[in-house]
Amino acid sequence: MSDHTWGVLSNQAITAAGVVYFLALLCALVEWSAWQSRARAAVAEKELVGAGAPADEADAPTNPAAAVREQRAALFGRLSLLLTAIAVACHLVALVGRGMAADPNRVPWGNMYEFTISGSFVVAAAYVALHRRLKLSWMAPWVLGFTVVVLMLAVVGLYEPVAPLTEALNSYWLVIHVIAAIIATGGFTLGGIASVTYLLKARFPDAALLARVPDLDNLDRVSYRIHAFAFPVWTFGVLISGPIWAHEAWGSYWNWDPKEVWAFITWVVYAGYLHARATAGWKGKKAAIVALIGLATLWFNFIGINYFSSTSQHSYAAPAAPAVVELTEGASR
Amino acid sequence: MSTTSAPDQEKNEGVRRPGELNARELARWGWRQLTSMRTALILLLLLALAAVPGSLIPQDGVDSLKADQWREAHTTLTPIYEKLGLFNVYSTPWFAAIYLLLMVSLVGCIIPRCLVYARAMRAQPPATPAKLTRLPDSTTYVTDEEPAEVLAAARKQLRGYRIRKDDDGESVSAEKGYLREAGNLIFHMSLIIVLVAFATGSLFGYKGGVIVLVGEEYGFANELSQYDDFKSGSLFAPEDLDDFSFKIDDFKAEWLSTGAGAGTARGFNSKIRYTAGSSDEKTYDLRVNHPLTIGSTDVFLLAHGYAPVITVRDGEGNVAYSGPTIFLPQSQNLLSFGVVKAPYASPEEIGFQGLFYPFEGTVDGEPVNLMGDIGDGSHAMLSLQGFRGDLNLDAGPQSVYALDTSKANMMSPDETGKAFNLRLGETAELPDGLGSVSFDDVQQWNRVQISKSPGKEWALLGVSLALVGLLGSLFIRSRRVWVRARRVDGRTLVEIAALDRSGGGDTAAVVTGLAETLRGARTQEEKDV
Can you tell me the ipTM of this complex? Predict the structure, then answer.
C-alpha cells in the first residue's frame, strides 16, 4: 500500500469510528432512559404504597411488561459496548494508517490532530478495557459523547495532512514521552468524567436521570483508582522523560517553558487531589473539584498554550517572522 | 504529610484571655499549622497558582526579546509588573517563599512520620477490637468447628500478613502493606533531593549560545568572551567553564523536495573536531537530539543559517569591510536578514541592511525565496539597502544584527530608489564614487548552545526514586484483618472484619472472600472425611 492509500484509509477509518461511536452512544442513551423510567416508576410506586414501604430498586420488577423492558435495556447496554469495541478497532486502524502514511513511518502523534485522535482513542480504549473490572457501563454515554465530540472537533478544526516529523521530534523520546502524556491525558479524562458524575450525583441524589449511576462511594473509588493510575504515568511523562528529552534537544532539562510550567501545574493539582482525598474536610466533593481543576489545567495546556503563548518551544503555531528560526521549532504539541 | 490537627488550646488554662498564647506556644502552634496536611495542600495549590503568570507573561529568562517587546507595548503595566517581579516569576521572593514553606512543611511532616514508621516496623499489629461487627466491613457466621481450628485456618489463609504474636487466644490480628508508607516516605524525601539538585543546577549552572561559522579557520574556545549570549546562576564563577575548543569542519542538511514536507530540511549534521584540556583532538557528528558531552558540559546544535561573504570597497579603493556576514533566518526557508557596517570607509561611512535569498525566484516582478536549499548557488541573491553618512556608532554599543539609520541617508544604485540586488560573484558600484559592494561567496553557520547543569544526575535519580515511591504508596494495599472465633451456645461464632488503611481499597471483598474460604475449607474437609 502506498503512503497515500494509508492516509486515505486513516481518514475513512476515523469517519467510520465516529459514526459507530455515535450509534453506540444512541444505544447507551436508550439504556439510560430505560433506567430513568424504571426509577420514575419506582418513585411512583413508592408514593402509591405510601411512605414506609421500601422501594427496593434491586428487586426484579414484578409485572411482565417491566421485565421485558428490563431485558431490552440490558440488550441495548451490551449492544452499546459491542459497538464501542468495533469503533475502538476502527479508531486503531485510523491511528496505524496515519503512522504508515508518513515517510518514513512513524508514531501517529506528530501534531495536534494526531495527538487529539490518539488521546480520544486512549479514553475509549481504556473505557472498554476497564469496563468489567471497574463496572464502568454507567459511563457509556459520557465516554461516547466525549469521544464523538472530540473526534468531530479534531477532524473539522485540527486536521493536517500527513507530514514528516521535524528534526527535533525525530527521537525515540517522542515515542516514550508522548505516549506517557497521551495515556495520562486519557486516564485523567476518564477519571474526570467519574468526578463530574460524583458532583452531579452529590448535588441531585434522587434525580431519575442519574439512576444508572452507581452510589457516591463507588463513584469516588472509581475516580480515585483511575487517577491513581494516571498520576504516576503523568509523573513519568512530564517529570522524567520530558526533562530527559528537553536536555537532549534544547540543552537544559527544565526551561520554564509555558508547556512545561502547565504540565507541572497539572501535576501539582493532581498531587493536591491525592492529598485531598486523605484530608479530613476535603474528602468527597472538594477532592472531586480539585480533580476537575486538574483536568481543566491539563486541557488548557493542550489547547490553550498553543494559542495564548508564543514563547513556548512546544507551541508551533508559527508566529510571523521569529528572530531566529531554531532547528528545534516546528514540533507538534 | 502529618495528619496532626489543630493543637489542644483548651489545655492552656489560667488567667490569660482565651486564645492568648505565649511565644513558645505560638511557635508550637505555628509549626503544627505549617506541618498540617491542610496547609501542605493549600501550599501545593498556591504553588500551582503562582506558576501561572510566568507562563502567560513573557519571561526574561525564557525569551528576553519577547519580554522586551512586551515591555515596550505595555507602558502602564510594565512598572507594576517590574515591582512584582512578573518578568522573572520563578526567581522572585514570593515564589521562593511558597516553595520554601512547602519544603519546610514537607520536612516537618516527613521526619516525625519516619520515626513513627520506624517504630511501626517493629511493632505488632494492634490487638483485636472488642466489637468487630461495628467496623464498616465485617461478617459473621456460625460453625461447629473448634475455635482453635478456625483460627489456625485463618492464620494459614492470611499469608503475607504480619500476625500479632501475643494474641488473646480467641482471635487473630493481622496487618499487611507496611511498604505502602515506606513508598510514601521515599516519594516525599525524593522530592527534597530533586529540589536540592534543581537549586544546585540553577545556582551553579550556565547556558550560553554562540554562532560559529563552518570552516577550518573559524571555531570556538570555551571562554566567557566568546559567547553571544550567556546566562548563569548566581554562584557561577568563570573558572567553572570547562577547558575545550572546537571547529566545525562541515555542515550538511538534507532538503526535502517532494511530499508534504517539501522545502523543509532534516538530517542536520555538523562534523566537529574538538579538543578538551590537553587531550588529543577528537571528532563528533553533532546532530539535533544528539548532544556532545565534554566533561560535564554539553554542546547542542540548535540552528543553522547562511553567511554571505561580502566585500565593501570605499571611494579610495580600499577594502572597508570583508568577510562572511551572519544573516539571521526569518522563516523556515531561511530567507535571512543581515547587516554590514563599514564605519572606516572614506569619504563617508557606509552601511547595508537587507535580505539573503538562498534560492530566489521572481513572482509577479517581486523576488521570492522558494526554498532554503542553496544548491549550487546559482539562484542565491543578496538584496541590500545602502546607507551613507553617520552610522551613529559613537552613541554606544550596537547589535551587530541591527543598523542605526537615524543619522544616515539612503543610497540606491540609480534614481528609482531600489536596493542593490547581487547574484553570487557580482559587484555593484555605489553612487557618487563612494565605492563598491560585492557578493563573493556563501558560507554556513551553526548556532550552538553550550550548557552545564550540575546536579542533573541527582535530579534524575531523585525523580526516579520519587516515581518508585509513588507507585508503592499508590498500589500497595495497606489493611488490617481480624478474625475472632469463640464458643457461643455450644457452637463457634466466627467474626471477620477488615479495615482499609489506604483509601480506595475494597475491604468488603476481602472480608467476604476470607469468610468463604474459611467456610469452604471446612466443607472440603467434611467431604474428605
Answer: 0.82
